[in-house]
């Protein structure tokens, strides 16, 4: 019974993170930041490359705070611009997939660092570097693709960017980076879990914003909306993470769990490049048939010993996150792929493989090469 209870509760800190992080979006809604983003993106409409850069950059910063909601927010803001579906599928998945690599506010990073017991300070030097690199690669690849497609922007009347809009656009990344810096500094000082610190910040930041702005009415409205709309849709995700935690804990000390560790160590000793490719291909194949990445990561991260594999915990975490990001784009049944395909009314295979397959192939090759070199 004790082992069963431990398995069920092993992911509770992560579930707290998933439930509370959406609260961080309330100050940005109250502050009118999303309206400024809309004006900014509409100003870039006449240049496909600039608009693509703008969308991916906004997702890069908003993704950690809004999770999948960031794609919905951006889509609602620009849906009347009549942009082509292929353009949007590339922008949405390139922008959001980079978030998966680096943000400590994102559940994927949280669960990987939790199981491997990696400090976010040590991880971020790898994660943020690869994320920015992949974002630049995506922009360059889109620029090449757009010239071949000869994309032409339609005439569109846009609103003038005022000084207030410029101020908000400059403040947005500053606020988000400040939140990141606060949590990283707090982890360094207190040695508390990043999951606990992020959860506390998710409660404190909206409270401080409310006290500063004194917008009691709008704040209450957003809280009610969060309680009635945001929390209920997390039910499936909550059950999935609890089940994955139970499954991972149940394998500890078993013959099967030890077998996984020995097998992965043998593969890594043969070639670290082969080991990284095996993790990547396994993650993509398993998620392609409908099994969520959290199940795979729970099994791998709880059973693998970085010392036996001959690498560091940070490199192992980065390999797992690269595989998670790639599988999120390619898997036709992954929530990210399904959301984009639903919004754009395209099939999941078109959104993943056809529109973004080459991008995934390029960034995975670059990522594995860099990690193999650092290893």
- Count of individual beta strands: 0
Report low-confidence residues grouped into runs of 5 or more: 1-10
Gyration radius from CA atoms, angstroms: 21 Å
Strand proportion, as a percent range, falls in under 5%
- Alpha-carbon distance between the termini? 41 Å
DSSP helix fraction = over 70%
Q: What is the helix tally? A: 20
Broad shape: globular
Derived from helix and strand composition plus strand pairing, the structural class reads mainly alpha
Count of discrete structural domains: 1
For the residues shown, what is the average pLDDT?
80
Keywords: Membrane, Transmembrane, Transmembrane helix
Transmembrane segments: 12-31, 51-71, 92-117, 123-145, 171-189, 195-212, 272-303, 315-336, 356-374
What do these coordinates show?
- This protein is an all-alpha fold and 375 residues long.
- The chain has one domain.
- Helices cover 81% and strands 0% of the residues.
- Helix 7 (85-102) runs antiparallel to helix 18.
- The chain is globular.
